[in-house]
Fold Biopolymer transporter Tol.
Amino acid sequence: MSDPGVTDDGHYVVIDGRRWRATDPLIPEQRRTELVHILMAWRREVRRTKGTAQEAASRAGVNAAKVALGERGTPPWWDQTVAQRQARWDAEVTGPDDRVTE
C-alpha cells in the first residue's frame, strides 16, 4: 500500500481522487500514535455496534478522535493558533474500553 498523495499546502491527503483533511502535523508523534490507536478502537466499535442503540455513541467516539487529530472540527487546524492546536490534541479522548458504564 502506497502513501496517499498530499495537496501542495499539506492540508489534505488525496485517496482515490477524494480529498480528506490531513492530520495536524504539529501533534507530537507519541500523542498522534495514541490518538490513532483510540480512533481505530472506536472504528472497530462502530462495526460491532452497527444497527444497535450503541452505534451513535461509537460514532461519537470516532468523531472525538478525529477532532483531536485535526481531521475534523472548526476551524481547521491550519487556521488555529499553536496554543489552540495543542489544547485540541491534549484534550481527553477516551477509547471504548475507557468508558464509564452504569
Observations:
- The beta strands are 5-6, 12-15, 18-21.
- The helical segments are 29-49, 55-69, 82-90.
